[in-house]
Amino acid sequence: MQTENQILEQVRRVLVELFEIDPTRIQPQARLYDDLDIDSLDAIDLILELKELTGRKVQPEQFKHVRTVGDVVAAVGNLLRDENAA
Amino acid sequence: MSVAFDRAWRVCATGFCFAMFGIGGTFLSLTLFPLLRVTAGSRARAQPVIRSALRQAFRLFVGLMRTLGLLTYEVRGRERLLPGGQLIVANHPTLIDVVFLLSLVPDATCVVKRGLWHNPFLRGPVAWAGYIPNSDSEALIRDCSATLRAGHSLVMFPEGSRTVADQPMQLKRGAAQIAIASAAPVLPVVIACEPLTLTKANPWYRVPLRRPHFIIAVGAPLAASLLLEGGPPSIAARHLTQHLAALFARGVQVQGQPVPLPVTNAPGVESPSL
User: Fold this and answer.
1) Contact residues on chain A for B233, CB-CB shorter than 8 A
2) Per-residue pLDDT tens for B197-210?
3) Is B136 in contact with A40 (Cβ distance < 8 A)?
4) What's the fold here for domain B2-258?
5) Roughly what angle, to the nearest 10 degrees, separates helices A4-19 and A69-85?
6) CATH fourth-level superfamily of A4-81
7) Which of A17, A19, A40 sits opposite B138 (nearest CB)?
8) 20 to 30 Å CA-CA from B218: which of B1, B5, B47, B100?
9) CB contact under 8 A, B232 and A18
10) For B187, what's the count of Cα atoms within 13 Å in the CB-facing half-sphere?
């Protein structure tokens, strides 16, 4: 079972790999659109990559309210927990 | 004295042209475009004809502005504008950039501000021509790529709105995303205007001290390697956008002559000549 910090690290790696964002700016309170310049097309690429990461099918609706890096981490955590619970 | 007269004349002529643009657009939407639609039989068949008619109208309008002494202009690299699904990306210093481009590019559609559909004078022409409303969504990328693959050219301004003086250009990634998704040839166009007019900062009646000269410089198609980088498309789009920003800042090399970007002009200040 992954800790929140481990998930944050993985999310950070994905964001750097997909969007060339400076890793020091990827903090839980960083807003995806306003702070990290991740637009709606990028969000789709991100969701696909998280699908790879979690090995789990991701519904775009689960990410509808995701605004910050912290939200992404929480959403990924939920996905992994669901997987374990199944 | 004659400078003052020339300026006063250009204020009147500018107002006249604004009126002609609005009235002309409305007139075409009520007469010629419906006629073309009916004779074509279907919207799909009508649209290229309507766009062609609109292109001629824009040509006439540019000619009108020149005849009235409002501006002079030159086009460089025009031979690069070919029919068949090119993505034209240009910087956006003035209000009439799109008029110039749409008068030049054959069979072109345009991504325009969503708000134009609520403008009483412009919503007719944009709807009849089938221009594409701007949005931050993958639907835009999809529609634009489809348009390019169908062989229609697309005019886009990555800045989204007119350049703000004294600030580095802010380019949105939509044009780059469309370029990568569609793999269409990308032609950068640098639009320079000296002295600047019809910018975001100045109201229309604040005409420059002397008659502006426009240069529309069409660059060579971007190398395919810029579109097919091999990494994630999200990174390719960022690199391509950065490349375009640098290109606009440097000016496009057309026939060996760089076209510098317009310098700012505060009212009453003479700008250095190009």
Assistant:
1) 45
2) 898 888 888 888 88
3) yes
4) Glycerol-3-phosphate (1)-acyltransferase (3.40.1130)
5) 120
6) ACP-like (1.10.1200.10)
7) A40
8) B47
9) yes
10) 27
The 3 state secondary structure assigned to B150-172 is: CCCEEEECCCCCCCCCCCCCCCC
Q: What is the pLDDT of residues B120-168, one digit of tens each?
A: 999 999 999 999 999 888 899 999 999 999 999 999 999 998 988 778 8
Q: What pTM did the predictor assign?
A: 0.87
Token reading at B267: 């009212």
Q: Show which of residues 22-81 on chain A sit within 8 Å of chain B, judged by CB atoms.
A: 39-42, 44-45
Partners of residue A40 in chain B, C-beta under 8 Å: 136-138
Q: Which two tokens stand for residue B187?
A: 């032609």
Nearest CA in chain A to B138: A41
Q: What is the mean pLDDT of residues B55-59?
A: 97
User: What are the boundaries of each domain within chain A?
Assistant: 4-81
* Cα gap B231→A28, rounded to integer Å: 26
Inform me whether the pLDDT recorded for B110 exceeds 70.
Answer: yes
pLDDT at position B129 is 93
Give A3 to chain B, closest Cα distance, Å. Answer: 28
Q: Out of A17, A39, A45, name the one closest to residue B136 (CB).
A: A39
